[in-house]
Amino acid sequence: SFLSAQESMHGMMMPMMRAEEIKAPVLPHGAALQEVAKLANQSQQPNLFKADVTAAPAETEFVTGKKTTVWAYNGRVPGPLIEVQEGDTVEIRLINKLPQPTTIHWHGLPIPPEQDGNPMDPVLPGKELIYRFTLPEGSAGTYWYHPHPHEYTAEQVFRGLAAPFIVRAKNDPLKDIPERNLMISDLKLTPDGAIAGNDMNDWMNGREGQFVLVNGQYHPVVEVKGTERWRIWNATSARYLNLSLGGRKFTLVGTDGGLLEKPVRDLQTLLLSPAERIEIIVDAAGQEGKVSLFAEPYNRGKMGHVAAEKRIDIAAVNLLAGPSIAIPEVLRKIDDLGEAKAMKKMVFSEAMSMANGRHMMLFLINGKSFDMHRIDFISRLHETELWEIINNADMDHPFHVHGTQFQVVETERNGVRTPAPYRAWKDTVNVRRGETVRIKIRQDFPGLRMLHCHILEHEMLGMMAIQQVK
Ligand code: C2O
Ligand code: CU
Ligand code: CU
Predict the structure, then answer these.
(1) CATH 3.40.50.720: does it fit domain 342-469?
(2) Which residue's alpha carbon is nearest to atom 3 within ligand 1?
(3) Residue 385 in contact with residue 444, Cβ under 8 Å?
(4) Is 277 near ligand 1, meaning CB less than 6 Å away?
(5) Centroid of ligand 2 to alpha carbon of 307 (angstroms)
(6) Cα of 463 from ligand 3 centre, angstroms
(7) Which atom belonging to ligand 1 lies closest to the Cα atom of 450?
(8) 339 C-alpha vs ligand 1 centroid, how far in Å?
(9) In the chain, N or C: fewer CB atoms in 10 Å?
(10) Whole-model pTM above 0.90?
């Protein structure tokens, strides 16, 4: 039988070294950024994408001369990029060669719940499962896939299981702009180069590794000639990426579920919380030079003794003169989700409890810890609802719901309501401590959907609930 999460967690609760006290190994850096390898389509049929994805232990070399055992999709960290078009049918056979149950969750995709890799549908070690779904019109956007088995999600992701998924539009207004994908993850190694386990601090605040990686590389170099469109994934367990190009300007054109209605120009920083994605346009024209992609300090609130936030240099960026391509003023039309027919309230909180004589943090939604056999919310199919997500906790929590894209209506802080600055499709939104976020949401498939904090340690420690759509 598997080591239960509770057991392994209690192991973690023993006094251990703090992350910052572990002597970090040295990683090679400074190589040109590599693209994430694409998953090859095995089908000859038009509009069908078919492939095998094996989840298995694999060896890689992060530290020169040292082997690191990771858990990987088809032997790669990050896993292979799946790139399809709106309207395509996707058929992926998952082969589980891990020592634990796993699933593939298609983060953000509008697909039926029974194909979405819910914790209720584990694929046991040595077993296989075929996921099959069709991507509707209008679903073009930047998604990802990762495991979602009960109690093992955090571990399987930090061992390396996560990969990008892009749905292309039939008519893309930005198709003339060269693209680049940056999947950001982080890596925590022991001094001898093995993937480190979680310590007490990781369980409370979410795991942050010593190394921030882009496409699996440590501190790569990105060369931008003229104009580029970047898709950026925050695929870390818990790291808030307050992205900047060191004062250079960029334009936001898309969020989790695809393009905005209009470009948002002249940005210098943009906060990408765990699991969120953005599309930005970086134009070197008029701002040539050597800069960096930074994560600027962002205080998300942490418990216990933690080091002050510092700026992280994620990648070197060389902005070079080249063809400058104008961004159209109109990208697409996003219809409002319409009048809400029902309302739901979700309160995020933290609590301390005693278990087996040890103090343990609990992360709760409406005062309850996740129970796989309990339905927490019932919604009607195709009906727009207003959800009020209230963060009463001492730290920020990125809220995520499966199977659909929602629209943020407003945020409220100290009684002051701020309407969303633009309409956008999102499946993950940061809820700052002490803040309330109101969203409009609609589910278009019947069945069970997960909603949770995407700090994967918090999800594991209870901050998850089930929505039944009928
Ligand atoms: Cu990306 Cu339920 O998660
Ligand atoms: Cu998801
Ligand atoms: Cu959280």
Answers:
(1) no
(2) 107
(3) no
(4) no
(5) 30
(6) 7
(7) 2
(8) 27
(9) N
(10) yes
Residue spans per domain, the chain: 5-168, 179-320, 342-469
pLDDT-derived band at 81 (thresholds 50, 70, 90) equals very high
Instruction: Give yes or no for residue 148 CB within 6 A of ligand 1.
Output: yes
Ligand nearest to the CA of 453: 3
Handedness of CA 146, 151, 154, 156 (dihedral sign): negative
Report which protein residue has its CA nearest ligand 1's atom 1: 107
CATH class, 179-320 region? mainly beta
- 464 CA to middle of ligand 3, Å? 10
pLDDT tens digits, one per residue of 211-243: 999 999 999 999 999 999 999 999 999 999 999
| ipTM greater than 0.95 | yes
CA distances (Å), 147 to each of 78, 150, 202, in order? 13, 10, 19
Q: Do domains 5-168 and 179-320 have the same CATH topology?
A: yes
pLDDT tens-place string over residues 38-67: 999 999 999 999 999 999 999 999 998 899
Q: How far is the CA of 107 from the centre of ligand 1 (A)?
A: 5
- Residue range 247-304, pLDDT digits in tens: 999 999 999 999 999 999 999 999 999 999 999 999 999 999 999 999 999 999 988 7
CATH placement of domain 5-168: 2.60.40.420
Rounded distance between C-alpha atoms, residue 184 and residue 171, angstroms: 28
Using the predicted structure, report yes or no on whether residue 9 has a pLDDT greater than 60: no
